[in-house]
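User: Please run a holo structure prediction.
Assistant: Happy to. Please share the sequence and the ligand.
User: Here you go; the ligand is zinc ion.
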Amino acid sequence: MKHRRSIDLVASHEAVATDRETLASLPQWYVLHARCPACQRQAMLDRRELAYHYGKNLILARIGIRLICKSCGNRRTNQLLIGKLPRD
Ligand SMILES: [Zn+2]
């Protein structure tokens, strides 16, 4: 059985030019995750929700600094990770 959630996450700057790409310009098959360096919590981000709150023209590089960890409340140096959804 194929595992649907096998997504390779990489640091955002390795996969995408996050200083140029925005929520609107990033292709749909990319998913965004956030990782908290303080407590190691990792969570998937809802792109539509981010666009709703911050505007779809938000530069990806600006997302990490706006994130707040839901587990420990850390709001500094949260890391944005980007993964590609498997395309069948
Ligand atoms: Zn945390």
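The first helix runs from residue 12 to 15.
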